[in-house]
Amino acid sequence: MPPTQPLSNQPLPRQTTIYGVLGGIASGKSEAARLLAGPDGVVLSADALAHEALNTPEVQAQLVAELGPQAVGTDGKSDRRWIAERVFEHPAQRALLESWIHPLVRERITAEMASARARGAERIVLDVPLLLENDAEHGYVADCDVLIFVEVSQQERERRAQALRGWAAGDIARREAAQLPLEEKRRRADIVVSNEGTLAELEAAIRNILDDPRNHP
What we know:
By secondary structure, the protein is α/β, with parallel strands linked by helices. It has helices at residues 29-37, 46-54, 57-67, 80-87, 91-118, 135-138, 154-165, 171-176, 182-188, 199-211, and strands spanning 17-23, 42-45, 123-127, 146-151, 191-194.
């Protein structure tokens, strides 16, 4: 019987690095997540998955029953802006909406994270706005090898929210009141990256993170 080939001569499976992105509203977390993932990585965006969940027939029926027919636009899609304006003013309604949406989002993230790991994705990036706040429900923080905080001044975030999202002054503070303080998120992070400047500067900062061997398991 021929000797068994030594394990050391067999290629080892590539280990996946999982990054969790933290930061305030309009800080550019999604752009940072895209750059962290790169062409061979996977971004799991809770916001994108929540938008998909909002348009499922089951959730739309619940929205109309709770908020009224205005919750669904004439195009057949849930009116996210109209819904957000109402639920953020009513904590009980916001909690009810989250009880419909969050389980669907968690199910998708868990499944897609397992799939990406199984096929040997180099990097998985969790772009989950309430990553720390809802950790008791999903447990994703323990899966993260590196937590990165995207830092942008309050003034610049306000400017971006008004210019790019059409938000009114004070909308950021109103929405972040229900979240952990940014100081706590920054403290919990392993790395802080500034996104105060240009996209090229953010790209360079992310490249430095990826090139540093200490940021890989």
